[in-house]
Amino acid sequence: MNVLSLFDGMSCGQIALERAGIAVDNYFASEIDKYAMKVTKANYPNTQHVGSVLDVKGDDLPEIDLLIGGSPCQGFSFAGKQLNFDDPRSALFFEFVRLLEETKPKYFLLENVKMKKEYQDVISKNLGVEPVCINSSLVSAQNRARYYWTNISVQQPEDTGKLLSDVTGAQDIPLDLEGLLLSRTIKTKQKFTDESSTLRRMLSNIASPTQKSKSLTASMYKGMAANGMTNIFDGDIVRPLTPIECERLQTVDDGYTDHVSNTQRYKMLGNGWTVEVISHIFKNLM
């Protein structure tokens, strides 16, 4: 099988294909982030990086059997400014459409965030299929609902019932949260300019080990008050998730991203796919 992966990131698609038992002859990865490419090469040295999606031409590639990608979602996300196709990052979706037409693969898969119906319909019209919504919470301890447009047969995965305690080992001890935060017993190096609003954000980010985490985001590296950061009870403290715990929430092997700084690890894990969801979809290719 020849695979073309657009917006490849740290190559979650390659992990998913391997887990699904699908042999790959050539894996062409379009990516421009040097840190993500470093992680990919460390884990999959035979990856053929082909540069920016804007420069990839179907005529330069062999016959492609599978086209995959998760085009940048900043313009679509309900958590963002919702610029939609006016945001040049989200407009990169049309590069996926272009290469779908140029390569004419047997199968394709596009992932993106939940968005307004009008923009969902634009994507569906261009790809000729309606999306399937799968929440990563079924196969992980993370709430992460995503749309998947594909011509591969898709069913909902079975619920594994995983919770934060399954990936963190954290202890659920009842705490006076507000008192704990105000007394500065949180382990963090973050410095705050607006203590009251930061504390409110931290309070809203705290989850029990008996719960699921929030959906991981690329801004988690900013610390305990960052958008998308889930902080957990652990003994007598509240702390942020570690990069390895974020790997587990994305169902990536421990240490997969440890070839770069923690800042870059948080970013690429927030941008990545939940591998077990993608693997579940790819198993239908067999």
Question: What does this protein look like?
Answer:
By secondary structure, this protein is of the alpha/beta class. It has two domains: 2-159 and 274-285, Rossmann fold; 164-248, no CATH class. The chain has ten helices and ten strands. Strand 1 (2-6), helix 1 (12-19) and strand 2 (26-30) form a beta-alpha-beta unit. The protein starts with a strand and ends with a helix.
Order of helices and strands: EHEHEEHEHEEHHHEEEHHH
Mean pLDDT, all residues? 87
Would you give the CATH topology of the largest domain? Rossmann fold
Radius of gyration (CA) equals 19 Å
Name of the top-level CATH class of the largest domain: Alpha Beta
Give the DSSP E fraction (strand runs of 2 or more residues).
Answer: 15-25%
CATH structural architecture of the largest domain: 3-Layer(aba) Sandwich
Number of domains: 2
Helix/strand class:
alpha/beta
Q: Count up the helices.
A: 10
Kindly report the spatial arrangement of strands forming the biggest sheet.
3-2-1-4-5-7-6
Low-confidence spans: 180-185
Shape: globular
Largest sheet: 7 strands, mixed
- What is the CATH homologous superfamily assignment of the largest domain? Vaccinia Virus protein VP39
